[in-house]
Structure to design on (1172 residues):
């Protein structure tokens, strides 16, 4: 019971922001914003930023960061292309379901290997995560560029693109995947021994080590979990873009850091829940869709995304100062 | 004597220098046009912009901070300065620099203020301001390119010192942009090494609490560090306009991480307190030489990122292994025989 | 004439009085011990002296003259330096820079001028017998040498008053001896010294006089010679305090051996350690810092495994390469540094309590069972008597003694055979110490554990253990198994002998 109350308090500001933004965008854009088509489009787009933000959040739980997230997703998509075109001898669109599944399994494997390497270097060799993943990002992006020679590669079979652009009874597949992945990860983070130990490790690595927690293994598994989000992203991305490229969604990398921060993740580690990050992703998506409908420049969206953190800071200070003034008045009276 | 040589080799600058020499000799053996004055001056010119940026990044990194907004700051300065010079101010190159430095400093101070006042992680703040600056600029300018740039900005990149004439009649030599880079590097090196404000940046990055305790005003220092970072981004902006003579809103966006990587490779510590101008210059040059070598050896430029990523990973892994060895050898208790 | 006088000083934080009506004066060349329990106002007083805090009211006189503005950093400009516990130096810079930058920052020049300091720095380094080159990077020196550099820095700006904040915590006895000699020398140069330490024997050893603070109030200022340790403790706690001696000194040698070490060795840490721990025994290990006690404990617990030698638990030989091995074998360790190694201060007490035993808090689907966590946490807080209004509050909100109990309690669900306690009462108020030992003794009786108790407070060990091992330079130097031997003065003599040997 107490737990429920706690949760309510924690995310109230985010819920309020969502409601305010939603009402504001509805008032400005009218039925355009509230139309079924638009809501569907939002549900279709949100999973990308959501998955990246949660992948980032997972890596931040131990006080790290995963800059290789987007590069990893792109590399993964390109790897699927490599395997598929090898299996089908160059004609990807003719691939049957089993070939698609084989390609997906291989790419899953390679993502886990990348996640393992990240985690190993960070946990065992104690390399700062920022540096390690910066290097990994550059390396993966380089490999993607070498494989694709910088071109956009399309022609994926429908059975694969369905995951990104299809829908089930009107609900976008991407949203279904998103909800599914979020649920699984929620269970992993909040209901398993590993999850609890991960939070503990993030809050204080030394204390964790002295409390029977194998921090090396925890951090390695953490980065593998983070890489899992790169994998999920790549599946959705192939469908939504109908192609792969070395540099898709590059600008989303740092936005993912912002989103997780907005969702209450402490970059120093140990604090942050999946729900907060999901809410923050919804906020970013409402801003993006709303501004797009107003026919504003897409870069206005970028500016607003950057500005929202600063608004939050200003807002917090304002509220604090108001409290102080009110309290002083009360005391005087 | 042997120990001394080992000590020197352990220094990051020396290591980078040796790697650069090794790569140069290798490329030279395959492609004789590499170690020519013409090629080298071109390589230096090509990396001058990143070189200038890296000096600002270096200062911020030494202070224990982090900045990804510097490219956005430069981009905003480019637009604002060219617009002012075309419409409102009769200018020359000095006025252009002054304006750019002014704009850069102001935006940098805004970063510094947010980081210091709200005690927020620098990475979060600068990601936000990067988007904010860049987004607002794009919205206001609607992403238009400015082809019309004051002509007096051109000589900065076309003028050369020690120029010579190539066989085909083209003139080549060290570009003044490169001179600007090195001059700025010397100023930054002197600032960091010989002034109290410069040293206090190392103090702040090394141990912020201790710095406070000996009388360093952290707020002032933070503002100074990000202000200088912004100012240098402003200088880079003018140099950049001079080279391409157009203002393209997204021409340098996305190079932030490369610059940061060069600074780190140059020996600066991401946790602050350590870093040198020489190392940073060598880091930038190493990246530029790799890029150039790929062209000369006719390898697809796609490989550039692979090499860079490989080098970054290799260098940090070697570093980490060294540290591990050191801590293993540490004597904790003097055990009697 | 006194060097410094503080009269009727008040300071409060948000309504809480940190200092109330404290007066304090110090003669030139006087060594004053400043003692008091946690939260007694020691650090507030130091901060006011150093100038990083401003007193709410009160007067300060320096050499008889009233000082008006006592704002930020005025301490430094007026000749008062603090040697902080964390030293507050710059590990990334050279020795020379560390020594001179303080003076340079003060000077407000634009350019730095290090050369004028080289000779001064070299002569200071010689004077203090540090034995380093001015161009060495500070971070590569030992802590003791770094501390001397911090002193050199203070002497360079011609400080008249040096405040040492817990200067001995990270030093070996050899290094402490050297420091004390140096402090004597400073005293002869008419420099006043305030010495803060929780080790009362050190206070008695080095100080001329001492000031006791309690709850932000000045309790007493006395000549050290006139007081005994017991009297000082009484002044600090405000009531009589005595250890109750453990009545039974039976050796338990007939009980089975739980833990046996044979020739345990780790390079640069310890060598040839052999010992046997019986069931239900409390084995004390003492020895000065740098004797290898903590290193031995971390090897048994798998934090930093040993190089060679054998470890047997209940006659079964086991290999301990990591913490999990040790825990599986039934070994638990309560580490030295409670705040960093023991607890996640920002997490609820409940979560801290189940950290090692999380794998037991699962339901039949192998998912975490929150109710079970609460149940386990409640069970042990009750069993061990942690005073808390809610286990859902963070560990930070507890007092030192109760925090320590949480660190002990979190191991009990694992039902350990051997519990290693490393300095369990460091930083715990004297009043709370007895409570912790009572808990330990109870747990030994109730749960049939064996305990290795590491401490540098001899009286604590004699009162609470069945047998004591003294470690010196990485080896076991002496075993005191005959109860008659274990007597405070006897052990103090051994330690004193050790001091002299060094």
């Amino acid at each position: 019971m107490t737990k429920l109350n706690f949760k309510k308090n924690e995310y109230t500001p985010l819920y309020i922001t969502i409601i305010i933004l939603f009402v504001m965008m509805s008032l400005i854009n009218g039925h355009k914003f509230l139309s079924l088509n638009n809501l569907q489009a939002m549900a279709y787009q949100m999973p990308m930023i959501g998955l990246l933000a949660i992948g980032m959040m997972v890596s931040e739980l131990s006080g790290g960061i995963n800059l290789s997230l987007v590069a990893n997703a792109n590399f993964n998509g390109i790897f699927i292309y490599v395997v598929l075109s090898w299996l089908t001898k160059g004609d990807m669109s003719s691939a049957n379901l089993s070939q698609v599944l084989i390609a997906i399994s291989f790419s899953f494997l390679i993502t886990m290997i990348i996640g393992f390497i990240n985690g190993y270097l960070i946990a065992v060799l104690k390399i700062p995560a920022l540096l390690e993943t910066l290097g990994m990002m550059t390396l993966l992006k380089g490999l993607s560029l070498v494989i694709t020679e910088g071109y956009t590669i399309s022609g994926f079979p429908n059975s694969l693109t369905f995951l990104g652009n299809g829908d089930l009874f009107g609900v976008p597949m991407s949203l279904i995947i998103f909800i599914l992945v979020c649920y699984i990860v929620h269970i992993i983070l909040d209901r398993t021994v590993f999850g609890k130990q991960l939070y503990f490790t993030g809050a204080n690595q030394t204390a964790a080590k002295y409390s029977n927690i194998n921090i090396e293994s925890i951090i390695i598994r953490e980065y593998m979990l983070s890489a899992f989000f790169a994998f999920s992203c790549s599946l959705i991305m192939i469908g939504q873009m109908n192609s792969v490229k070395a540099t898709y969604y590059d600008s989303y990398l740092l936005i993912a850091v912002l989103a997780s921060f907005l969702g209450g993740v402490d970059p120093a580690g140990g604090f942050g829940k999946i729900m907060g990050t999901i809410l923050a992703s919804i906020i970013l998506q409402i801003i993006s869709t709303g501004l797009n409908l107003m026919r504003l420049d897409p870069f206005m969206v970028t500016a607003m995304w950057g500005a929202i953190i600063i608004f939050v800071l200003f807002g917090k200070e304002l509220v604090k100062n108001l409290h102080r003034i009110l309290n002083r008045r009360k005391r005087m009276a | 004597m042997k120990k001394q040589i080992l000590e020197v080799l352990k220094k990051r600058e020396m290591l980078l220098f040796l790697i650069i020499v090794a790569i140069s000799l290798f490329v030279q053996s395959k492609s004789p046009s590499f170690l020519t004055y013409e090629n080298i001056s071109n390589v230096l010119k090509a990396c001058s912009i990143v070189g200038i940026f890296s000096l600002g990044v270096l200062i911020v990194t030494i202070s224990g901070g982090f900045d990804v907004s510097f490219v956005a700051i430069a981009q905003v300065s480019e637009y604002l300065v060219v617009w002012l010079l075309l419409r409102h101010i009769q200018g020359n190159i000095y006025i252009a620099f002054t304006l750019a430095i002014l704009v850069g400093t102001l935006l940098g101070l805004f970063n510094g203020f947010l980081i210091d006042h709200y005690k927020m992680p620098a990475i979060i703040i600068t990601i936000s301001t990067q988007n904010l600056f860049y987004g607002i600029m794009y919205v206001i300018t609607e992403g238009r390119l400015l082809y019309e740039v004051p002509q007096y900005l051109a000589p900065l990149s076309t003028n050369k010192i020690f120029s010579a004439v190539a066989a085909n009649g083209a003139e080549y030599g060290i570009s003044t942009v490169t001179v600007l880079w090195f001059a700025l590097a010397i100023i930054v090196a002197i600032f960091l090494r010989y002034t109290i404000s410069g040293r206090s940046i190392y103090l702040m990055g090394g141990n912020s609490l201790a710095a406070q305790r000996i009388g360093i005003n952290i707020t002032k220092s933070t503002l100074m560090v990000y202000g200088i970072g912004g100012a240098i981004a402003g200088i880079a902006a003018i140099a950049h306009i001079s080279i391409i003579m157009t203002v393209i809103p997204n021409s340098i966006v996305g190079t932030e991480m490369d610059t940061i990587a060069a600074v780190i490779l140059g020996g600066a510590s991401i946790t602050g307190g350590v870093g040198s101008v020489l190392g940073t210059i060598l880091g930038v040059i190493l990246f530029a030489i790799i890029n150039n070598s790929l062209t000369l050896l006719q390898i697809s430029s796609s490989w550039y990122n692979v090499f860079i990523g490989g080098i970054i990973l290799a260098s940090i892994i070697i570093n980490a292994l060294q540290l591990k060895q050191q801590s293993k050898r540490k004597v904790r208790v003097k055990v009697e025989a | 004439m006194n060097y410094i006088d503080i009269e009727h000083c008040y300071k409060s934080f948000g309504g809480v009085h940190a200092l109330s009506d404290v007066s304090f004066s110090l003669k030139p060349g006087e060594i004053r011990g400043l003692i008091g329990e946690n939260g007694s106002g020691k650090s507030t007083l130091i901060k006011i002296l150093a100038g990083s805090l401003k007193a709410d009211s009160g007067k300060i006189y320096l050499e008889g003259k009233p000082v008006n503005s006592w704002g930020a950093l005025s301490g430094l400009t007026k000749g008062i330096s603090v040697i902080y516990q964390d030293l507050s130096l710059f590990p990334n810079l050279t020795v020379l820079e560390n020594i001179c930058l303080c003076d340079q920052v003060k000077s407000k020049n634009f350019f730095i001028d290090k050369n004028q300091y080289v000779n001064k720095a070299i002569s200071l380094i010689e004077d203090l017998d540090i034995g380093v080159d001015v161009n060495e990077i500070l971070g590569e020196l030992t802590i003791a040498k770094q501390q001397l550099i911090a002193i050199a820095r203070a002497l360079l700006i011609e400080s008249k008053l040096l405040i040492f904040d817990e200067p001995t915590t990270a030093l070996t006895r050899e290094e402490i001896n050297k420091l004390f000699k140096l402090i004597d020398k400073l005293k002869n140069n008419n420099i006043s010294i305030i010495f803060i330490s929780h080790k009362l024997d050190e206070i008695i050893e080095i100080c001329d006089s001492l000031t006791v603070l309690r709850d932000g109030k000045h309790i007493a200022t006395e000549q050290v010679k006139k007081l005994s340790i017991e009297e000082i403790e009484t002044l600090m706690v405000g009531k009589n305090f005595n250890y109750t001696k453990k009545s039974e000194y039976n050796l338990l040698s007939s009980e089975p051996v739980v833990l046996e070490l044979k020739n345990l060795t780790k390079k640069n840490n310890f060598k040839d350690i052999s010992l046997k721990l019986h069931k239900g025994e409390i084995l004390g290990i003492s020895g000065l810092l740098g004797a290898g006690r903590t290193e031995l404990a971390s090897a048994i617990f798998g934090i930093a495994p040993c190089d060679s030698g054998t470890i047997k638990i209940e006659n079964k030989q086991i290999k301990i390469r990591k913490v999990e091995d040790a825990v599986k074998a039934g070994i638990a360790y309560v580490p030295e540094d409670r705040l960093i190694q023991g607890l996640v201060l920002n997490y609820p007490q409940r979560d801290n309590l189940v950290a090692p035993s999380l794998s037991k808090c699962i339901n039949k689907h192998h998912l975490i069972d929150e109710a079970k966590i609460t149940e386990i946490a409640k069970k042990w807080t009750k069993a061990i008597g942690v005073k808390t209004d809610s286990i859902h509050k963070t560990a930070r909100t507890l007092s030192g003694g109760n925090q320590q109990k949480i660190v002990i309690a979190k191991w009990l669900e694992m039902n350990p055979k051997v519990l290693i306690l490393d300095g369990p009462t460091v930083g715990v108020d004297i009043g709370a110490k007895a409570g912790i030992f009572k808990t330990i003794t109870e747990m030994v009786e109730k749960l049939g554990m064996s305990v290795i108790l590491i401490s540098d407070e001899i009286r604590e060990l004699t009162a609470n253990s069945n047998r004591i091992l003294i470690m010196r330079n990485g080896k076991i130097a002496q075993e005191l198994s005959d109860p008659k031997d274990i007597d405070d003065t006897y052990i103090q003599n051994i330690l004193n002998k050790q001091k002299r040997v060094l």
Remarks:
- Chain B touches chain A through 49 residues (CB under 8 Å).
- Residues 2-299 of chain B form a domain with the ABC transporter involved in vitamin B12 uptake, BtuC fold (CATH 1.10.3470).
